[in-house]
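#onboarding

Welcome to the new folks! Below is a worked example of what a typical request in this channel looks like: someone posts a single protein sequence, and someone else replies with the predicted structure as tokens. Don't worry about understanding the tokens yet, we'll cover that in week two.

Example request:
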Amino acid sequence: MAVSRALRRLLRIRSLQEEQSRLALESTLGELHRLEYTLTATVERERRGRSLIQASVQTGELPDRLAGLEETRSAKLHAAALGPRIDGMEEEVTDRREEFLLKRVERRQAETLIQEIEARNAIEDGRHGQQALDDWYSSRMYRDGGKEGADAESAVSTSGGLASQTNAVS
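Example response:
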């Protein structure tokens, strides 16, 4: 039985679904990396605010100290807001990764099914080819059997006659 168009179509659909799932995973991973980068920038902003406070203590500049305090406070609030978003995005990445792996398994199952059918067809074709060769050879033997049978009988009778002549001489 040949691989049906429905199975080929199923494989194509599974491949497209896997590709869409992979793209969704990559998009979600990109968003997670962007949030992590933003968190890193926020931590750096908080560090600069503390550095500004420390510098203003040495110079005595009150506006610098206030700016440093505000930068630190703002960075902490921003980091606190990013934490839950990053956690949520990590969960979404996990879900997308599982979905992608599920789609990959489904595609590979369809591929395996098609490969098994093709292998079975190849074995069956080989059997039919061997059967055709066997039939051809046996029909040739049957057709040529009359000539070869007569040749074989004359050879046996000749060799039998030589054997009897040899026995008579001894």
